Amino acid sequence: MDGAAYLAAQREKIDRFLDETLPGSDSTLHEAMRYSLLAGGKRLRPGLAVAAYEAVEGTSQDIIRMASTLELIHTYSLIHDDLPAMDDDNYRRGKPASHKAFTEAIAILAGDALLTLAFEVASQPGVLANDISEGTRLQVIRELAEGSGSFGMVGGQAIDIESEGMAIDAKRLEHIHKHKTGKLFRAAVRIGALMGEASAEQLDLLTRYSEDIGLAFQINDDILNVVGARTKLGKSTNSDAARGKPTYPAFFGIDASRQKVKALTERAIHWLESFGLPAEPLRAIAIFQLSRTS
Amino acid sequence: MDGAAYLAAQREKIDRFLDETLPGSDSTLHEAMRYSLLAGGKRLRPGLAVAAYEAVEGTSQDIIRMASTLELIHTYSLIHDDLPAMDDDNYRRGKPASHKAFTEAIAILAGDALLTLAFEVASQPGVLANDISEGTRLQVIRELAEGSGSFGMVGGQAIDIESEGMAIDAKRLEHIHKHKTGKLFRAAVRIGALMGEASAEQLDLLTRYSEDIGLAFQINDDILNVVGARTKLGKSTNSDAARGKPTYPAFFGIDASRQKVKALTERAIHWLESFGLPAEPLRAIAIFQLSRTS
């Protein structure tokens, strides 16, 4: 299976859902929400959720909706990360960042609104009655909140910001990566698994997969930040180094970093052994992420 | 019944719950969350939720927890509103605003984390099994998200920010008030009612109460902003006028604004007629808000 093709197929469903779900451009705020959310992107987190749901042979009609909440969260985090007071990035996905296209105030509020919308979407009644139990829906909301909150993504971002220009060690860098990126990857996979009514053992194995793939993704991002081309990433290359941000290659060099990504990917795939054929999408995404250049 | 005393009694329970629920001060982010959330405040929104729950003779053990989520949302909105890119207020509740006490980046993230925590808290399992149905819990989460999202509080804040220095009419000002403040008041009352398993008719009457009391509160805030004392409000008097923000008294004068607050309060109390004695707390809060000077 081709990971890029799989993600593209999911992306189409996710994007259609998001386009239908987002409010129209009847206000600047809603325009700003659309601007950032529908600016493209691989939809990797929703794709992981759908793939995890397929790995446990889920049957819920609601998986695309629940998977989409991860993109709402991810996009809000990008808008806030790009703000002058944070990473101060003027470009995102090849376009002016939200605070450049609109204003800082609107960018802050658009992020707030997208975060809130994620929970609104997740709490809506299912497409079919009795499709997924209400208890499972509450569990999904909890995963979403925990993965993106102060012990998850936002916590990682806070330590990242605080570490700028500081001499931190590799352990702290890994802590940042595991939270800032890793916890939302983890939530994505677990939400897919929960929507597919995974057993406790399956949930555990998929969680391990998600943690390895999340760290591999972030180290790969660090590598691409150092060696990638401006056009591919849609933002300045080596922008992390320019502002004194620690990266994995800065500690271990490019080659060892690449080795680490490879080893994590192999271990991630190893956790999927007992799932057989239905886990092909998760394997394909792991291999795709290993080879991506943007 | 004395509204101030009633709110103080609820505040104690709310503050104890929040103190126990908030993460410790193990990181700057968590410290910033505590700093703003435990800085005092009347806890009016949670108080309204508990009072509405009492009006329908609720019995859930979980009302304090659910009511507390409204304060998490309210506090996040204050942190973000105070940012330099928004209202640029350096003081809040008599202390330096979050971005002054910490940094802008930490203030943005603390707001994000408090918003996320609200949904985490709301999605946790109840104190007792079968206390409140999972369907009701999902409804509560939906009220919270709708009240605070782009069609609610955040939407109102966006229009408010965009209107600064513009010549707007009274209709637009009322639209801002009804969203920026009103929608979260509405959510507070409706969440309390849902937690108390209100009938559809009760929910409708309580919603009308909440809309009237919400607008009365905001007009009163406008009045206090013009005539109040710096020490009482903990921020500069007439700060709205100073930055060209429209207020109710600017359109209608102080006297007519006071009349409007009084008329709205009377109508709010009128909606409670059929509830009898259990609605005393809601009546007391309405009267308290009419007479408050801070």
- Mean pLDDT of chain A, to the nearest integer, reads 92
CATH topology of chain A: Farnesyl Diphosphate Synthase
Which ranges of chain A are low-confidence, i.e. pLDDT below 50, for 5 or more consecutive residues?
none
Question: How many alpha or pi helices of chain A?
Answer: 15
Q: Mind telling me the CATH class of chain A?
A: Mainly Alpha
If classified by CATH, what would the architecture of chain A be? Answer: Orthogonal Bundle
> Strand order within the widest sheet of chain A?
1-2
Number of domains of chain A: 1
Helix coverage percent of chain A: over 70%
- Please name the two chains that share the biggest interface, counting residues whose Cβ lies under 8 Å from a Cβ on the partner chain: A-B, 51 and 51 residues
- The SSE order of chain A reads HHHHEEHHHHHHHHHHH
The count of strands of chain A amounts to 2
Q: Supply Rg of chain A.
A: 18 Å
Helix vs. strand class of chain A: mainly alpha
What is the overall silhouette of chain A?
Answer: globular
Distance between the termini of chain A: 20 Å
Q: Characterize the quaternary organization of these chains.
A: homodimer
Classified in CATH, the superfamily of chain A is: Farnesyl Diphosphate Synthase
Query: Largest sheet of chain A at a glance?
Result: 2 strands, antiparallel
